Amino acid sequence: MTAPISSAGPAASGAGDTDHDRLPPPARLAYDLPTWKEITHLLLNLPTALIGFVYVVSVLFTGAALTVTVVGLPLLAAGLTGSRLLGRLERARARSLLGVRIDEPSPLPRNRTNGWLNRLWLTVKDPVGWRTVLYEFIRLPWGILTFAVTLTSLFVLWPVLPFLARGLANVDRAMVRGLLSPSDELERRIAELESDRGVVVDTAAADLRRIERDLHDGAQARLVNLAMGLGLAKEKLLEDPDTAAAMVAEAHGEVKLALQELRDLARGIHPAVLTDRGLDAALSSVASRCTVPVKVTADLPARPAEAIEGIAYFTVSELLQNISKHSGARSASVEVWRSGDRLLIQVWDDGVGGAGLEGGTGMRGLAERLGAVDGLFVVESPQGGPTTVTAELPWRDRTEGSRAGTGVRGRGK
After folding, report:
1. Which end of the chain is more exposed for a tag (fewer CB within 10 A), N or C?
2. Which residues, in sequence order, are CB contacts of 195 under 8 Å at separation 6+?
3. What average pLDDT score do residues 272-297 get?
4. What are the φ/ψ torsions at residue 112 (nearest 5 degrees)?
């Protein structure tokens, strides 16, 4: 995001006088076009300030007063969303009449997986909306002052009005830059991280529900049937040993199936091979279960942090499942390597292509999970293939746990 222009008026020099912030020429006795624009802006200050002040008082104060009720927070959030619109209109007015060109603030994250309550809370905490509210409060007394001075000067202080207009307009420029400019990158990152935290929480909750469902419908149900079968075998042990033996044999088969289901479930939580032998061996193991021949290449000088290692494993695992089910491929490959402070993953197949983030929840879910840890997820899959999926994660050392930065680095096939 481009930094806000910081020049304060015609006295500013150098970087302030750019295409992004076209400063008017120095004030003089003659009434040129920039002077008339400044006068127009000052005369419009009062009506626009009245509209903004009435809005924030009526909507936001009402929402704040009703926060103890069900409608309070939604009304407050709607009011702050509207204040963002007021800020956009004020920036447009300053751009056309004062030559102040300011970047628009980043929009609030609207991740579908966050849940409406989390999105509501993000809107209520929106710093851009609250700064606009502060701007509208300050504008009312300032708008009255500038309107009165400018209107009076049109009839009384005509010769010096260009200088008065320039001074008052420069204060307006400073207010717009100070309160309506997007803040630094930190504000955007805070909003993104708030959104990402919601993704992580929702994903963890979904995984817990999946584990509970798998235990209830799979191993638990099988063990219940096993207990009942062994109970019946016990009753027939004396009166019908052959039937009891057959029932015990059947129960033995059920035990094997239950153990296999528990192993599969444990592998889905965190495979033992990943903990014991690292990402290379774990990816080779999951590749061996793919219906398509997969070549695995891992070039890692050390093991990353456990959380990053787990995300990398499950990302590749899901991508290989997609290849097995949907690609129609004859061969595939997995490459994993470290580049600077990033862990790079590239999964390729020669299938039919046509995969994308918009095609279903699987790919989109992977992109959201990687985004939640400051990662990237890129899919290149033209119709007819081949498909190349590149995933990028921050490298965190297993011992130091250092956070990595962002940055796109890739390697061609």
Report:
1. C
2. 109, 111, 114, 118, 122
3. 86
4. -65, -25
pLDDT, position 17: 38
What are the backbone dihedrals phi and psi of residue 404, each rounded to the nearest 5 degrees, phi first? -100, 160
Residue 348: per-residue pLDDT: 93
For 276-394, the fitting CATH number among 3.30.565.10, 3.40.1080.10, 3.30.450.20, 3.40.50.980 is 3.30.565.10
Q: Tell me the three state secondary structure of residue 335.
A: strand
| DSSP annotation string for 9-31 | STT--GGGSBTTB-PPPPP-SS-
> What's the confidence (pLDDT) of residue 246?
80
Identify whether the C-beta of residue 36 lies closer than 8 Å to the C-beta of residue 96: no
Give DSSP secondary structure letters for 259-287: HHHHHHHHHHH--HHHHHH-HHHHHHHHH
Domain boundaries 198-269, corresponding CATH code: 1.20.5
Round to whole Å and give the CA distance between 21 and 228: 80
Encoding tokens for residue 53?
Answer: 């002040």
Q: Summarize pLDDT for 305-330 with one digit per residue, the tens.
A: 888 888 888 888 889 888 888 888 89
CB 311 within 8 A of CB 395: no
Alpha-carbon distance of 179 to 52, in angstroms, equals 14
Contact 97, 40 (CB under 8 A): yes
Tokens (6 digits) for 19: 């295409």
Which DSSP letter does residue 179 get?
I
Please report, for the chain, the start and end positions of each structural domain, with discontinuous segments joined by +: 14-183, 198-269, 276-394
How do strand 376-380 and strand 387-394 relate by DSSP bridges?
A: antiparallel
Closest CA to 128 of 93, 110, 98, 104: 104
For residue 299, give the 3-state DSSP assignment: strand
Query: Per-residue pLDDT tens for 98-121?
Result: 988 887 887 776 654 456 777 777
Q: Which residues contact 330 (CB under 8 A, 6 or more apart)?
A: 292, 293, 350
Q: Is the pLDDT assigned to residue 20 strictly greater than 50?
A: no
| 172 — pLDDT class (breaks 50, 70, 90) | very high
Same CATH topology for 198-269 and 276-394: the answer is no
Using DSSP bridges, classify how beta strands 332-339 and 294-299 pair: parallel, antiparallel or unpaired. Answer: parallel
Per-residue tokens: 390: 């590149």
Question: Taking 50 as the threshold, does the pLDDT of residue 7 lie above it?
Answer: no
